[in-house]
Structure formats: C-alpha cells, structure tokens
Amino acid sequence: FLAFPRFRQKAVDTAAGAYWEDDADFDLDWHVRVTALPGQAGQMELQRLCSQLASSPLDASKPRWQFHLVEKFGAGSALIVRIHHCYADGIALVEVLLSLTDTKPCAEHRAALAKVWFKDDHGSVVERLIAPARKGISQAMHVAETLIDKGRELLADPEMLGRLAHEGSDILRELAHALSLPDDPATRFRGPLGVSKRCAWSAPLPIKEVKAVGRALGCTVNDVLMAAAAGALRSYLLEHGDDLDGCDIRATVPVNLRPLEHAKKLGNHFGLVFLTLPISEANPLRRLELIAANMREIKQSRQAVVGFGLLAALGMSPAALQRPALEMFSRKATAVATNVPGPQLPLYLAGSQIVEQMFWVPQTGSIGMGISILSYNGQVHCGLITDALLVADPEQIIDRFAAEFEKLLLLTLMADWQDAITATGVAASTAHFAGDLPSLPIPAAKKSTHAKPGQKPPAKVAAAERRRRLAALA
C-alpha cells in the first residue's frame, strides 16, 4: 500500500487552494488498527461497526486513511478500509486494494492480477458506458491543442470550424440540460442530514444469473442491478405508506473517464451523469426497460464530459462558490449510485482467501444515500449507506434487493422466448400462470422489437430448465 507515495502525504487545504505535503510524523500504528466484536458477532454487529467508522471523520492532520482489522469474525476475520476520496476515485482505489492481494495462497505463485482483471473486464458495463465520453474528451483535448498550436490553420479550415461548432453546441446543450433539471421530488430519502451514517449490504447474487437475465432482455448487467435497486427502494417506500404516483427519483452516477490500466496513477478522473430511477412504476420489467433506455441515452450523450468539466471548474473556484454550487447539483438527485466490476476469480490476502468484498460510495451536498454494487468471484453484492436521520434501517431496503432480482428472473423464465421479451408480454404471461396480479399492471408500452440486424435473438430456454428454476424459486 505504501508503495504509493501519496499515502504518506496529507492534504493541506488553504484559502489559496489545496496541496499535498509529506507527513513528517507518519506513524503506521495510527493507520493500522486491530479491533474485535463482542461474543459471537455476526453481520449485524459488523454493520454497526462499519456505520460507526463511516460516521467518524478521518483526522485531517494526518494522511486520511485507516485499516481496521476485525479479529475472529465468523470463521476468519474482516478488514475495513477507510480512504478519503481526495486520494483517488473508486476505480483507482479498487486497483490499489487489489494490488495487496494474490491470486494464489502462496505469494511465490503470485499472478499478474491487473492483467487478468483488465482482460476479463474489457468491454464490461463500465467500459461500454465510458467509451463515448472518453472519445469526447479525446476529441476535446485534440481540439484544444489544435487551437493553441495551429490557431491560424484552424481559422483557415471551415470544415474544422464546423466540427468545433458542433462539438461546442453538444456540450452547451448538455450543460443547459444539467442546469435546467428540477430538484428531485420530496421523499423520506431527502431532508436535513445528521452526523450518523448507517451501512448495510445484501446477500450475494450469482453473476451468471444476472448476466443471463440481461442477455435475455437485451440489456446490460448494470441495467438489471439498478432495476433491482429501484424496486427495493419502491417497496420500502410503499411499506411506509408513501404515495409514489408520478414520483421518480434520480441518482448521480460517477463515470470513469480513463483507461482502467491508468487507475494506479490515483487522482480523480470521473464525470457525473443523472440516472432516473422509476420508482413510480409498478411493473418490474417496465422499470428495467425505462432504466435501460435512460442508460442508452446517457451513453450517446456528453453528460459525463460536462460533469467532469464542472467538477474540475468547481475544484479551481473559490471555496465560497463551491458549497452553493455543489448544493445546487445535489438537490437534483436523491442518491449516488455506482457499479464497480471486480475480478472474477478468488483472491488471497496474506495467504487467506477473501470470501466477500463490499464498498460504500461517499455522498456530497444534501444527498443522504449511496448505492454501491460490486462483483467479485462470480457473485454480486449490493451495499447501501444512508444518513441515519433519513433512513435508520438501510438493511430493510437492502434485504429486498435479492427479491427484486428474483422477480425479474422469474418473469423472464415465464416469458415466451420466441419473441423479444417486453413488460407487456410478460404481464400477459403472468396473468396466464397466476391470474392478474395488481403489482403487474400492463403499461402502454411500445410495440416489441426484435434483435438488431446482425444480432442473434436470445436462445430459447429448455422447458425442463424452466421448471427446475421455477421450482427453486418457489
């Protein structure tokens, strides 16, 4: 970990700006702590400890990170790592922590984990999401260099001027869109924030099943998981008697804007996009359709590039301007949501196998909820962190995550696989199998579409396999 010199430094914030300074009194004992939970502690006790640590600010007079080793937890131990966001973004910090691990129990058999991870995740959800944004940034940087070095040639090139005008109009349109978004609607997830945080995480889901649902429905793994999260939020609000008619909320989604192999350079290189979570929609598949359509629109836009530019501009602006600007944008969303793809192979830390991994995304401004999704070794975990004044029992939300995914899986298995699966068609199949269900109204959906030219339609599931899956879910 200390092979990264930055972690021996502390951030010094002044009126003129922030800078890094070596900690002359660096003490490893301060940063690496050993603790234990009382008695036969389980997940609830570990969640309480995580909540306490998440509620405790890191000491600004020292490098802002700590490792807490929880001894004798379950059949082994737990390691809680706290690192301030000023050091790096989520993708970079995942790479840092992965650098501490091995792919074999013995260090002498250590494999090039980064190469394995990057190779396996090439073309993943994150990569597909950031590809248009990265292309836009490259074009913008190229244009900037051209303006500086070849200004006269640019002025003499009408075609280049036309491309510049087009790029500029796209970015200005995205900026206007971001600024014109109304504040998110009032729900119990928004309100005055306190000082205490609550952490929770779900039981793992098999990544193979999530991918199978995504392939069958023509959407990404990220779409499926965010639809399950939206369903869990909706179910919690309904149980508390909230009226969700026309009440959709947004999540700000950090988007990595650099190649994964550059993550080890640390620093923050991400933009922000606004993703609508359609919690007013009762039909689980219709929710998924809406989220997938929103994500496709985001991928084709310059939202992430604009978000990166705004964050960079705010970082260089006076402190008096930063707080109201961040508050203005945080009012436009209810949660921060992020999905980090991890390595799909078992990892070892100091010779011990890592059974599960989880992380929690930080929030800013008046946002009091963070949704974190992490895949590791064939499983997907979903984590939730909330402000205790808004949601004191996040486990009541996160425990619904698996059930919401099982709804999507079950409805997919019940569908007619001859044609493209849509919310309308599945609602009809549900009525056929179990009668009309009030929670699955048939929406005014568009006519179903088949696979695009050159793409094969989803493979038809064998009847025996359908029965086996349905019996397992019963």
Question: Given the structure, what is the number of helices?
Answer: 16
Please give the number of β-strands.
14
Structural class: alpha+beta
CATH architecture of the domain at 180-402: 2-Layer Sandwich
CATH fold-level assignment of the domain at 180-402: Chloramphenicol Acetyltransferase
**Taking all residues together, what is the mean pLDDT?**
75
Q: Determine Rg (CA atoms, Å).
A: 24 Å
Looking at CATH, the homologous superfamily of the domain at 180-402 is Nonribosomal peptide synthetase, condensation domain
Shape: globular
Spatial gap, N to C terminus: 47 Å
Element-by-element helix/strand order: EEHEHEEHHHHHEEHHEEHHHEEEEEHHHH
Helical residues, percent: 40-55%
Proportion of beta-strand residues: 15-25%
Low-confidence stretches: 116-134, 143-148, 150-155, 163-168, 433-463, 469-474
CATH C-level name of the domain at 180-402: Alpha Beta
